[in-house]
Input
Amino acid sequence: MVELQRKGVGRRKGKRIFIVCIIGILIILIYALVIKNSSIQIEIESIQFTESSRKLSNPNRGFYHLYTFWITEEQTDYEEVIENINQDDRDTDLILIKVCLQNYRDGRISEKGIWNIESLFNALEFLDKQMIVRFIYDDEGKGKEYEPESMDIILQHMRQLKPILDRHSKKIFILQGVFTGNWGEMNGTRYNTAENTRRLAGQLESVTDDSIYLAVRTPAQWRSIIQSDDPSEETLSGSSLSARLGLFNDGLLGNWSDYGTYKPEDNDSIDSIGRWNREEELDFQEVLCRYVPNGGEVINDNLYNDFENAVEGLEERHITYLNKDYDPSVLKKWEKDIVTEQGCFYGMDGYSYIERRLGYRLLIAGTCLTYNKERQCVSVEVSLKNVGFAPLYKEPEISVVLYNESDGEVLSKEMSCAVRELSGGKESDMLRTASVQISVNELSKTEYSVFFLMEDPDTQRHILLANEEEEEEYGYRIGAMKLY
Output
């Protein structure tokens, strides 16, 4: 019995000694770490940036060319067709395609028809462009004549297209219209009641991925579908459809009412189709299009699209994209105008100026790298501005990259920033800051170049910034650190 007690006491002593040893080792390690950190010295350099007027090639913004594809029963070599487009269209980052389903207005899209649509979208994947897509039945301004006589056929076509739209969702920026009307523009259609429009829009929402924006022709149609007069962030966060539904305007700056987009100038009564007067509609768009895209084509040379008026109009509508080919009389008018405002755009022709400001145009307004010895971390802050007409609607992936040239070490850290709040337009002086803290424990005693990087989530393309400084392999060099 005594022997057993001695063994028990011995085991307890052994455990205590073991625990004490472990605690001692931990204390030594912590002490060594503290000594190591307290001995670290850091030299930091922050680079300041200058705004540039250069042309930027970025996803989901800018001018586009338009192409129409008629779907038939005949097999089509779309790879060859798209390759020809690729050779000719090298000056845009967007493409608008109209897909005409007129041959199937009486019933289901056949297997051959579906095969051709799939082949078309497969070929389009090879273009280095994001797509704006519009499905139509009419391309002559005869919507009622060529639309299906039953809305059930349109709804069926939407369901049939769901697998194709899902497979190519990362390539599609916006899907315009609800298949109806003259040229697919939702006017001149037999399905123009509020109930029909809501049903078609709801079906389109259900067959498309949440990442694809949808668009209707007028603010009045938007209000009818969402059943709200309030375009605020609170309203838009209420459902998937309201968060995705934007506008497209193919009468842009065409006259006082944008060719019937707003209530006629001499109409003081309540509009039968829910349009508001011009100023109310512009205010509505200025708020709505902080959250969802707007674009289209300018038409009809008139005072509303004279250069200075056009810039103001594009700003307040938050225009992201425009047809590069129409209206040529308006576009050529812009080419003849000269920017007179002081700044990096001074002396530029009006067309080039508008091209550069379509959609988002982000730039680095300032950088700050600091070492907090107490917290043993390096803080990286990058202030951003948006001098474009519209926000960046797709949430970008933002990171700071530390590169050690001596051994090729690359350390990437995600940064947080409310970059989508940079609405551009008339609020181009607004700043938002991307920031991150990096623990010294993650760094080696060496020299690092520090880079700032933004990437589009769908294409993984780097988002180019409107600064004089050139982008490098890991982004824009914003500073350097030397640890010793």
